[in-house]
Design brief:
The complex is a heterodimer of chains A (220) and B (182). With 220 residues, chain A is mostly helical. Chain A has 3 domains: 73 residues, Arc Repressor Mutant, subunit A (Orthogonal Bundle); 87 residues, Arc Repressor Mutant, subunit A (Orthogonal Bundle); 40 residues, no CATH class. Chain A has 9 helices and 5 strands. In chain A, the strands form 2 sheets. In chain A, strands 1-3-2 form a 3-stranded antiparallel sheet. In chain A, strands 4-5 form a two-stranded antiparallel ribbon. In chain A, strand 2 and strand 3 form a beta hairpin. Chain A starts with 6 loop residues before the first helix and ends with a helix. In chain B, a hairpin with a 5-residue loop joins strand 2 and strand 3. The termini of chain B are far apart. Chain B has a 3-stranded antiparallel sheet. A 3-stranded antiparallel sheet of chain B has the order 4-6-5. The chains are: A mainly alpha (220), B alpha+beta (182).
Chain lengths: 220, 182
């Protein structure tokens, strides 16, 4: 059922040798489909400048970009310019409830620990668990739709479930998909979290001022 | 369609699953078109060469982003596949429409010990999760297979055919299910 050729792959990878093509396709598969970021040892295409350039082109042609998670691990994420175009057109695969639940988990698991300096400034994985009570009771999300949203966010990797070994409630933490955010996307999300969690904080005022200034400059 | 539009379409399908478009619309490069049975619309799916597909991960010992069966979602998919894949010698897409009662009969055999209410809850939640990635397309009272099933490779289908044969048919309910109905 999968025998047709892919014109994007054929065009971008045409100048490569068979060996280089195999490495680039494998790197594309690992970056795009792995649940977790991939160590550079598994990605020989990154070591060869020609292959790396073609891999980055392949990702770009399919709306993606290479994301370095740390010095040795890589993944792929949405190209920032593509994200900007899609969001400007109103594209949004998540429902308002799913977005609200995701924000609540990010507030409890990232924003609060970060404000207490228990989490790094640009960290989006967290061991601080958000309980179902935090989301459904304190977050005032109706139980039925809230549980459905949690389940869907877990199934698409935006959240991960944490069981409590001591028999307690357990809960949710940000999922591995958050590691796919580009530096620009992480910065936007950080701003949005501050605006959502502390709208009257001076930092929120500074973000609003910066955005107003940027949009005024763009109009000019 | 230019490179920019193609990239945007790939991102749409990646984030929102296969997209349904009018039959006359143009295909972005590298995407497959699946024509709906009414020929009025098509589904656009990313088509990856075998060497760039998710099967490569097994060779590297990497864990793919798969649906977990923690809540029984895969059993719901198996029950849908048994009811909607009319002829396992053929491709599963587009398959046939199945009533939720039929799917529930197969699901009863796959989830022994669950009562009717708990099973119905599992079916509703499972269909919702599967619909997200277009594995199934539910309508009130019915379900059919979604365009995503056309991404299965020949090897996947060979395994799934074996599974299909092992699953009970909805024409032969289990004794538990018959007792519930009585």
């Amino acid at each position: 059922m999968n025998s047709e050729r892919n014109v994007v792959f054929d065009t971008v990878l045409a100048p490569l040798t068979d060996r280089q093509r195999e490495n680039v396709e494998a790197a594309y598969a690992l970056l795009e489909h792995s649940r977790e970021p991939v160590h550079r040892q598994e990605l020989p295409a990154l070591q060869d400048p020609t292959s790396r350039e073609r891999l980055e082109q392949l990702l770009r042609r399919t709306g993606r970009t290479l994301v370095a998670v740390d010095d040795v691990r890589f993944t792929s994420g949405y190209d920032d310019t593509v994200t900007a175009e899609l969001t400007a057109d109103g594209w949004q695969p998540l429902t308002p409830v799913e977005r609200a639940v995701l924000v609540l988990v990010l507030v409890y698991s990232v924003a609060i620990p970060r404000s207490e300096e228990q989490l790094g400034a640009d960290a989006w994985t967290s061991g601080f668990v958000t309980t179902e009570t935090d989301v459904l009771k304190d977050g005032k999300v109706p139980a039925g739709v809230g549980k459905a949203a949690l389940s869907r966010l877990v199934s698409c990797g935006l959240l991960a479930r944490r069981r409590d070994r001591a028999g307690g409630e357990g809960g949710y933490v940000p999922g591995p998909q958050l590691l796919r955010l580009t530096p620009a996307a992480r910065s936007r999300l950080q701003d949005q979290l501050i605006l959502a969690a502390a709208p009257s904080h001076p930092l929120a005022a500074a973000i609003r001022e910066r955005r107003n200034r940027t949009s005024r400059e763009n109009i000019r | 369609m230019n490179e920019r539009d193609t990239a945007v379409w790939w991102a749409k399908v990646r984030s929102g699953g296969p997209q349904r478009e009018p039959a006359g619309s143009r295909s972005p490069d590298g995407m497959r078109r699946l024509v709906e049975s009414d020929a009025q619309s098509v589904w656009l799916l990313a088509h990856l060469p075998t060497g760039a597909g998710p099967h490569v991960l097994a060779e590297y010992g990497q864990e793919p982003m798969t649906l977990s069966d923690l809540s029984g979602t895969l059993r719901v998919l198996a029950a849908c596949l048994r009811c909607c894949w009319a002829d396992p010698a053929a491709d599963p897409w587009p398959g046939r429409l199945a009533g939720l009662e039929q799917v529930d009969t197969v699901l009863a055999a796959l989830t022994p010990g669950r009562d009717r209410i708990s099973r119905r809850r599992l079916l509703t939640a499972g269909l919702r999760r599967l619909e997200t990635s277009r594995w199934v397309l539910p309508t009130p009272g019915h379900v059919r297979l979604g365009p995503r099933v056309s991404a299965w490779t020949a090897m996947d289908l060979s395994t799934l055919r074996e599974m299909w044969r092992m699953l009970p048919s909805s024409d032969h309910p289990t004794s538990d299910h018959l007792q519930e109905q009585a």
